[in-house]
Amino acid sequence: MTMIEAVKGDITKQQVDAIVNAANSALAAGAGVCGAIHDAAGPELEEECMTLGGCPTGEARITKGYGLLARHVIHTVGPVWHGGTQNEPVLLRGCYEHSLKLAAGHKLKSLAFPAISTGIFGYPIDLATQVAVSAVRTFAKQPSSLEVIRFVCFSAKDLADYERELAVQG
Ligand code: ADP
Predict the structure, then answer these.
(1) Whole-prediction pTM value?
(2) Cα of 132 to ligand 1 centre, how many Å?
């Protein structure tokens, strides 16, 4: 059984096996949630990231967590929103699916996601939550190592969007 939950909070403070980073394709430290994760993890995180050769949009890579409470970071590169005409929903779904697969492949029990692409990358939060909840719900129907999948929302508004979508998708 996999429990899916949404909380308001800071992803860098989550006590889970892995947190997901809304990364850029170079896997560089950057701004937003990515900058916060790199700040909290310390410089070794970017050093390991720099050995990976980047990551295409919609895919994911795993590293250690260094100074974080989480043992691992799964870096996934969300699509930049171009009005929905450039395959954004498929790419965003890929972020969730690849991250979940990596987590299960490493036998992780708990995973926390931020709202990928909804900050600097401009993906509308209501559309992004539909994709996020659908991808996670579908994954959670199959048996895996994952016991908890948590959506960590930075604002009360984002949390409300997730809670509504979790209720809608039952
Ligand atoms: P992207 O470039 O993928 O849009 P951002 O970092 O700009 O990534 O934003 C992604 C989401 O992460 C936004 O909803 C933003 O509010 C949220 N966010 C920013 N900092 C944190 C944090 N420390 N914990 C959780 N979510 C965060």
Answers:
(1) 0.98
(2) 14
